[in-house]
Design brief:
- With 150 residues, this protein is mainly α.
- The protein is 84% helix and 0% strand.
- It has one domain.
- The two termini are 29 Å apart.
Length: 150
């Protein structure tokens, strides 16, 4: 398996980067939909029902598949070169940030289900602030991958 991944290593990296871009796009957009839902859509309104559909499709058609492909290709890249995991200090930091990203993703899913049941507990301001979480995590991840500060 490692030989197959090594042979197509650059293609795995391409798929990984494309998946990450798609995942991040969804993680940026979903909280924005929640802001509109919390601030502008009365429960049971046409706008609320439209936003529920948009939130569901974004999560199931873009965010979840992109996240899965990101993890699969990322793990494959590590399996092809496992020494990278043990000989670098930046990769564990990146992986820790990815775990936090995964936790944020899970919260997006929980909040979507709250909206689906018309049981949102948060304000638009809460979702605006939460929208900054993936940005901060992304900055740390990119610095780890490009600069490799340790």
């Amino acid at each position: 398996m490692a030989d197959f991944i090594l042979h197509y290593y650059d293609w795995f990296k391409v798929l990984h980067v494309l998946a990450i871009i798609s995942w991040m796009a969804g993680l940026f957009y979903q909280p924005r939909l929640y802001v509109y839902h919390a601030e502008r859509a009365a429960k049971g309104s046409e706008l609320s029902e439209t936003l529920k559909i948009m939130e569901q499709k974004l999560m199931h058609i873009i965010i979840n598949p992109a996240m899965i492909l990101s993890w699969i290709t990322g793990v494959a890249l590590i399996l092809a070169n496992p020494s990278m995991l043990f000989n670098s200090k930046w990769l564990p930091v990146k992986l820790a940030m990815l775990v936090l990203m995964q936790i944020f993703h899970a919260f997006l899913s929980i909040w979507r289900k709250d909206f689906l049941r018309d049981e949102n507990k948060h304000s638009g301001v809460f979702y605006r602030v939460s929208n900054e979480v993936p940005t901060v995590l992304m900055i740390v991840i990119v610095i780890m991958v490009i600069i490799k500060p340790f």
